[in-house]
């Protein structure tokens, strides 16, 4: 009987969420009953295509710069993530920090340039605590800019002044996320926005995007990268901004142009 009641509750919740524009997959994540999922982002400019590995096996193959894979189901328990150039088995970077992948969680693995443009890796654990009836967009910032190692990010209405407002994501340190890994994403209403980056505590932009639409139920990881495509082109605090969109369809990252 308990199993029947649980199944009935899931079916009812899925029906309600679907009517509000969400998905039954969101219901399972919120209730912590779906297997953990992972997707991969290739964020190394001018790098070759790579294969993404999970526990020593290729999970998603032949990924180009800006590729954002669809979510793939993984087992619970310890996870080792890595990537290698296509047609090789030499891992360029490896991460084994996830000791117990949890049901209902989303994991993001990012291939990014380290200082000197050497390959590096980062992993974000997202517990996905979105309310069943929420249609809000989810947003998180990540700093992959070795040339701008601490940034404040503002998500504001187009043309709005940031002189009297606090950063939406403050103190985004190099190779770190805000909100931090293991914390839930920020929730904002869908609408038209602009992203502005400054150095910590400053109100002078080092980056200012054009306006863009952030839809209800969107799931965005905003990632900063060095603006140049090679080490010789890197200028301190000069960045580009990629948006990786979560979901169960493969969508390349969007690069938001700097309007400055």
TrEMBL record:
PROSITE patterns xrefs: PROKAR_LIPOPROTEIN
Name of the molecule in the record: DUF4397 domain-containing protein
Alphabetized InterPro entries for the sequence: DUF4397
Keyword Signal carried by entry: yes
Domain DUF4397: 37-154
Keyword NAD in annotation: no
Residues annotated as signal peptide: 1-21
Organism: Caballeronia arationis
Domain of life: Bacteria
One protein family per Pfam: DUF4397
Keywords annotated in UniProt: Signal
């Amino acid at each position: 009987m308990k199993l029947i009641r649980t199944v009935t509750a899931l079916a009812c919740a899925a029906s309600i969420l679907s009517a509000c524009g969400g998905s039954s997959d969101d219901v399972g994540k919120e209730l912590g009953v779906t297997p953990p999922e992972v997707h991969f982002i290739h964020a190394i400019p001018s790098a070759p295509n790579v294969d993404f590995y999970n526990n020593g096996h290729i999970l998603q193959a032949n990924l180009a710069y800006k590729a954002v894979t669809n979510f793939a189901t993984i087992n619970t328990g310890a996870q080792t993530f890595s990537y290698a150039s296509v047609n090789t088995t030499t891992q360029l970077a490896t991460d084994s920090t996830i000791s117990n992948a949890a049901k209902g969680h989303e994991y993001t693995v990012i291939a990014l340039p380290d200082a000197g443009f050497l390959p590096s890796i980062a992993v974000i654990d997202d517990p996905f605590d979105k309310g069943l009836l929420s249609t809000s967009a989810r947003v998180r910032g990540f700093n992959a800019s070795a040339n701008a190692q601490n940034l404040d990010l503002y998500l504001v209405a187009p043309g709005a002044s940031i002189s009297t407002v606090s950063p939406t994501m403050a103190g985004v340190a190099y190779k770190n996320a805000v909100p931090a890994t293991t914390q839930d994403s920020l929730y904002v209403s869908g609408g038209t926005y602009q992203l502005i980056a400054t150095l910590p505590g400053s109100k002078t932009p080092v980056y200012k995007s054009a306006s863009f639409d952030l839809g209800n139920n969107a799931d965005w990881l905003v990632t900063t990268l060095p603006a140049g495509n090679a080490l010789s082109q890197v200028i301190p605090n000069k960045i580009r901004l990629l948006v990786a969109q979560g979901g169960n369809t493969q969508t390349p990252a969007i690069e938001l142009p700097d309007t400055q």
